[in-house]
Recover the amino acids of this structure.
């Protein structure tokens, strides 16, 4: 007897199943229970087939009405007619049987994903049936239904563990992302709001809006905001990263007493929820706020006006583009350093002591040790974290939104016409686009761009981590 | 600040050993005085200054919350007249729709508890499956998770909002709980890092004794993972308290009794309201910050591991 095993390569396994599978195996692609039926696993066969029937019925019943309209996203606009009700002699409003593009899109995407899932499971099922066929051929034991159930507590326990979390991720993360990608190719905006209006596919027009001169205000604002987002991310990341390391070094030095006290004092600033601390700081720095009063009292305002840095009678900390950008970065340092200090502290405590020891014996001085050992070690351990910090700052919604929303008024007509401000990050702009203007199409395009930027940075930063799975080292 | 290193100063000790006490000259005494008294004092004064500077806004928050004046204090740092009226009015709103602090607190607490339970269970389940079990598609799922976590959650929240609207779950706390906890399985990495350190021999021994995988999870691994459970519980409990965006998107009905603390406090600072409510905003901010700061400080040390993805273990 030839020793056949199912290949671990899914494509090879599938090929083998198609070529060498018997009638039951081949049939199990279409009738999920067939493979099990052929090996006399009757209950399993019945259950699998029932699940398949259920899935397909649901798909046909709820999916097809929407799928049929998916290519146009609906054609019948909502119309309300007022008619006399013949019985009561009152005017009643009659709504026609209209199409709701938003529902068509969401249900359509769900149906498509379900179909993909059904096909994939069919293929997987065929491979499994083939494995079963091989077992039967070799005369090995074939599980009864109760043994299958019991295996869910044993080697198949991961299925129980993962089912709900994966379902949650699929519904709340994957489906929305797919929908979002589709919305980017429609004209879903304030002029096409459902249910009263329809929206439809427009191809790449939204992308052109942002990237070519066709877009006018959009392209202009996008360029400006993207530039500021990148500048902000670089500054916010580097200042807090190095500030945090210096602070950690300072506090963790053996010459410092009461390390825990100092650390806790600093950490209080990040332990207070940001919607409290940042909103407060916003009033702290407002045009007529307390910092301005103090600056006036110590004649700093006059001085700055004399040297021409400001023209107003106050310092526009959060209300003129240049000042606001500097202030925001400063405030971010205030929030960011304690946070980076915590991380650096954790990493510093773990620097292998023998490294330091040998350096010291070799006569290295403190500065050399810092430059040649501490810094490289920190960079090595926190390097990937530096990238994810960059990504976090790229999407740092809270700092920008809480500090500038409703306080910062842009004077740039082009930008204000589409709800953009000079101090906006891509994410705050997109938030305002959806919340204030319901311009979902552009917001979706921005989301996709943000995602591509962040995901590629992460893949670069973590490729080491993804490639080498080091978990075995600890066990 | 470059000279402040955490390495014991070897040179100093060498010098001291080389020069016995009796032969120390005046200059060396001065040097010693500088090294032993002046430098440490300066160091601690500098630290105190830094920390003081860092705490200015927090001090202002607390001070303003005890002000007798309702609006934004713009002329003085500390209030002119002290009073606790902001706190008493915060808790006795009467029929003031803009101030339902107790209701908001209760709402947030409820949402946080539910989120915390679901998230913790999800995180532990995923972490165990990924750390202790081997199955086809495991690596693939881990890579997918890593890329998905990169997608800032609230970008797709607009679509989640639309989806929840079609099933009538917007403006409901249940919907918000789902938003916070449904995707929480993705945050399994820290817990997995911890599970990775539990000796595999322990699980093997249990298996030989006839323990099922399920029993190993509930009876061996979970009881051994108290620190990481504490971390997961606290961090998922804190998320709804700290969150602002998601609640703002999901609870947009304008009915004050639906809001969470963050939305409520944010609305207090509307242009039209800020002059009557600023002090109460500060009082509310202080009250919500106290328990949260305590929890945050408690989980500080896990927090570090959470950020560096367990790389800290060294």
């Amino acid at each position: 007897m030839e020793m056949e095993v199912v290949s671990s390569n899914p494509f090879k396994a599938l090929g083998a199943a198609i070529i060498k599978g018997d009638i039951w195996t081949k049939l199990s692609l279409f009738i999920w229970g067939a493979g099990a039926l052929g090996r006399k696993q009757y209950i399993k066969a019945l259950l699998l087939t029932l699940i398949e029937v259920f899935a397909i019925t649901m798909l046909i019943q709820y999916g097809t009405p929407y799928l049929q309209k998916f290519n146009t996203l609906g054609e019948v606009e909502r119309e309300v007619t007022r008619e006399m009700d013949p019985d009561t002699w009152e005017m009643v409003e009659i709504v026609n049987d209209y199409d709701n593009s938003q529902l068509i899109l969401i249900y359509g995407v769900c149906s498509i994903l379900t179909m993909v899932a059904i096909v994939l499971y069919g293929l997987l099922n065929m491979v499994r049936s083939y494995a079963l066929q091989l077992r039967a051929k070799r005369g090995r034991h074939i599980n009864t239904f109760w043994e299958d159930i019991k295996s869910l507590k044993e080697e198949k326990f991961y299925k129980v563990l993962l089912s709900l979390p994966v379902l949650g991720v699929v519904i709340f993360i994957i489906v929305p992302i797919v929908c979002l990608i589709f919305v980017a190719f429609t004209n879903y905006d304030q002029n096409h709001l459902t249910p009263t209006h329809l929206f439809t596919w427009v191809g790449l027009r939204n992308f052109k809006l942002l990237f070519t001169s066709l877009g006018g205000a959009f392209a202009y604002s996008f360029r400006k905001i993207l530039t500021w987002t990148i500048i902000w991310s670089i500054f916010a990341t580097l200042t807090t990263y190095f500030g945090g390391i210096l602070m950690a070094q300072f506090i963790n030095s053996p010459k410092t007493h009461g390390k825990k006290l100092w650390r806790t004092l600093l950490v209080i600033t990040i332990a207070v929820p940001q919607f409290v601390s940042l909103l407060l700081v916003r009033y702290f720095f407002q045009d007529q706020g307390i910092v301005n009063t103090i600056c006036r009292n110590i004649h700093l305002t006059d001085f700055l006006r004399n040297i021409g840095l400001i023209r107003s009678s106050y310092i526009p900390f959060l209300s003129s583009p240049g000042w606001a950008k500097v202030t925001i970065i400063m405030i971010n340092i205030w929030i960011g350093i304690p946070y980076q200090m915590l991380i650096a502290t954790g990493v510093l405590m773990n620097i292998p002591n023998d490294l330091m020891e040998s350096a010291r014996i070799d006569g290295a001085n403190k500065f050399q040790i810092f430059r040649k050992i501490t810094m490289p070690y920190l960079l090595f351990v926190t390097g990937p974290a530096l990238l994810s910090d960059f990504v976090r700052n790229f999407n740092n919604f809270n700092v920008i939104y809480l500090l500038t929303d409703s306080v910062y008024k842009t004077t740039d007509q082009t930008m204000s016409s589409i709800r953009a401000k000079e101090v906006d990050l891509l994410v705050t702009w997109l938030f305002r686009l959806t919340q204030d203007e319901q311009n979902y199409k552009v917001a979706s395009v921005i989301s996709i761009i943000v995602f591509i930027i962040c995901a590629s940075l992460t893949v670069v930063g973590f490729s080491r981590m993804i490639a080498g799975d080091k978990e075995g080292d600890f066990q | 600040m470059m000279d402040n290193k955490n390495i014991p100063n070897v040179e100093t000790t060498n010098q001291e050993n080389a020069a016995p006490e009796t032969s120390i000259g005046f200059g060396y005494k001065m040097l010693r005085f500088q090294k032993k008294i002046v430098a440490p004092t300066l160091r601690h004064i500098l630290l105190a200054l830094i920390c003081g500077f860092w705490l200015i806004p927090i001090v202002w928050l607390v001070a303003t919350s005890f002000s007798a004046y309702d609006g934004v204090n713009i002329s003085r740092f500390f209030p002119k007249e002290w009073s606790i009226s902001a706190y008493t009015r915060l808790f006795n709103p009467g029929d003031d729709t803009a101030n339902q602090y107790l209701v908001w607190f209760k709402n947030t607490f409820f949402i946080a508890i539910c989120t915390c339970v679901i998230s913790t269970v999800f995180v532990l389940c995923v972490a165990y499956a990924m750390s202790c079990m081997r199955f086809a598609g495991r690596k693939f799922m881990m890579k997918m998770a890593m890329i998905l976590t990169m997608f800032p959650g609230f970008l797709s929240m607009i679509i989640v909002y639309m989806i929840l609207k079609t099933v009538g779950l917007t403006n409901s706390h249940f919907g918000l709980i789902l938003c916070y906890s449904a995707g929480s399985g993705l945050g399994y990495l820290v817990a997995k890092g911890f599970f990775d350190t539990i000796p595999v021999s322990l699980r093997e021994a249990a298996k030989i004794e006839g323990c099922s995988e399920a029993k190993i999870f509930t009876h061996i691994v979970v009881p051994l993972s108290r620190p990481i459970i504490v971390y997961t519980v606290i961090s998922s409990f804190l998320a709804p308290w700290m969150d602002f965006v998601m609640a703002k998107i999901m609870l947009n009905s304008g009915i004050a009794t639906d809001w969470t603390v963050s939305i409520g406090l944010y609305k207090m600072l509307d242009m039209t309201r800020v002059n009557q409510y600023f002090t109460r905003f500060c009082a509310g901010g202080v009250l919500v910050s106290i328990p949260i700061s305590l929890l945050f400080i408690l989980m500080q040390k896990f927090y570090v591991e959470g950020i560096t993805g367990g790389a800290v273990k060294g």
